Amino acid sequence: MTAACVAGCLGLATATLAQAPPASPKGEAIVASVSVTATVTKINQDTRKITVKADDGQKYSFVADPAVQNFSQVKKGDVVTVTYTEALVYEVKKGGKASSDAVAGAVAAPLGAKPAGVIAGQATVTVKITAIDPSVPSVTFATADGDTQTYKLKDPAKLQGVKVGDTVEVTYTEALALKVEAKPKK
Q: Alpha carbon of 80 to those of 60, 74, 114, 116: distances in Å?
């Protein structure tokens, strides 16, 4: 998770991400979200196998985990909407030490309702800058465990004002929301 957070922090600009307005080289926030809607085309309540057809015509089949409450409420023709969102925020700080923290949670629909829920997780990692090579440009970080990794930067301007010994606090958040709605009435 640490490597993913740091890599995401340094990768920063990709075509699919909606970026916050330009920020100082001391920090930045990046958010991406995608939503897919599909219609239930087949469902087997005994095996919990469900097939859905997305708006683009693609069909997907999967078996719902027994932890999915209210599965018996899902019927052929129901509409399933899934939204996945991820965010990465980082801030360069003077001094400090490397550390990490992670939290996760889930919320489900009440019994008897159509299945719905949200699963979210967040990890915060603070890494210490141990080396900077402006000629590459690259930066080397050390984690709380003492592991080091070097990453190339896409934007050398992000190194302005950053020094060896500074720490970078990276918070990565992801969430998946799912809801099932009854078949639309015609």
A: 12, 9, 10, 9
Contact 142, 127 (CB under 8 A): yes
Q: Could you read off the pLDDT of 125-144 as tens digits, one per residue?
A: 999 999 999 899 999 999 88
Given the structure tokens 């990890």, which residue do they identify? 123
Domain assignment of residue 139, given as a range: 2-181
**Other beta carbons within 10 Å of 72:** 11
pLDDT averaged over every residue in the chain: 82
10 φ/ψ sector (left φ>0, alpha ψ -120 to 50, else beta): alpha
Residue with tokens 């210490």, as numbered in its chain = 128
Q: Is residue 186 part of a domain?
A: no
Domain-located, residue 57 = yes
Please give the tally of structural domains in the chain. 1
Q: Which two tokens stand for residue 31?
A: 């958010």
Report yes or no: 133 and 151 within 8 Å, Cβ to Cβ.
no
**Pick from 146, 138, 133, 163: which is nearest to 98 by CA?**
146
**Distances 109 to 44, 63, 119, 132 between C-alpha atoms, Å:** 21, 19, 12, 49
Q: Give the Cα separation of 186 and 184 in Å (integer).
A: 6
Phi, psi of 88 (to 5 degrees): -135, 125
Q: For residue 158, is pLDDT > 90? A: no
Our measurement of the distance from residue 133's CA atom to the centroid of its chain's CA atoms, rounded to an integer in Å, reads 29
| pTM listed for this prediction | 0.64
Tokens of 99: 């550390």
